[in-house]
Amino acid sequence: MQLPAPRGPLTALLFERLACPPHEFGPPPVPSRTPALEDEDLQLALFACYELHYRGFAEVDEEWEWEPSLLAVRGALERRFEDGLARSVPRPVPTFSASIRRALAELTAAATGPDLSGFLQHEADLAQFREFVAHRSIYHLKEADPHTWAIPRLHGGPKAALVEIQADEYGGGHAGRMHSELFRTTMRRLGMDDSYGAYLDRVPAITLAVSNAMSLFGLHRRHLGALLGHLTAFEMTSSIPNRRYSMGLRRLGGDEEARRFYDEHVQADAVHEQIAAHDMCGGFVRQYPARAGDVLYGTACALTLERLFAEHVMDNWRRGASSLREAGLTVGSR
């Protein structure tokens, strides 16, 4: 993946520095006053910093990954992001370990927001469905990777439960059955570019924030509980929307191969939901009762970011506009 176009002074400086051999970064520009979850410059900068821990960028030296001065800059960006999450996501009241599964179920059941999956099932045209896929490609082409950071930080039953979930995400050892590969097939069948990061220039801040929250939780051991709660939110709210996505794609002419990614999640996530809530989160809270609130906060963050994402997409579609950005627009642009 190539470095994307900058979206403001922060990413302009960051990408200029990253294109050079590793060196002392120096202080970043003064942050803007744009709310963190809407800040195109901040979210893209943070995404780029995190991407150095995944596949990286073609023109960026791999030694930048652990350059101390860059990590200090990333830490400053993370503090702004964490503050933005705290302002947008009320922290749920911690619960006792015996009721964590019920608390998770109540939290997900109470989630509100536009019915994006229903719209895609019944009303979206093919261009809108492709837009939705472009947004989701930012995460789905590396699906499961952020949550895998939790594996070496767990022990006992919760670790075994997470490994069971992740094994399915990675296709049980079969490359063609990996969920990221199934999504690439969906993209190809829709006539889209399935290369990693192909739509990075097009997605807005909220799409990047959805991905950045996973990386934030995954790369910091202090956020382990939140990472588990985040994954559990995904698993507990996945089956019905994915069934609707599949039905919508079939309505639009998508064949079985194009729909396989969504159909796989209808079945797999119905099982994963139970494993995640009971064995993984329940077991984790039994080991660490004081971290129950962290688990619920991670779930709440995932649900809130999904709501904000759906609001962005549906608001634009209702106005007859695209939910994607025009490539190359800078800070302050749509």
Automatic annotation (TrEMBL):
<keyword id="KW-0560">Oxidoreductase</keyword>
<dbReference type="Pfam" id="PF14518">
    <property type="entry name" value="Haem_oxygenas_2"/>
</dbReference>
<dbReference type="GO" id="GO:0016491">
    <property type="term" value="F:oxidoreductase activity"/>
</dbReference>
<protein>
    <submittedName>
        <fullName>Iron-containing redox enzyme family protein</fullName>
        <ecNumber>1.-.-.-</ecNumber>
    </submittedName>
</protein>
<dbReference type="InterPro" id="IPR016084">
    <property type="entry name" value="Haem_Oase-like_multi-hlx"/>
</dbReference>
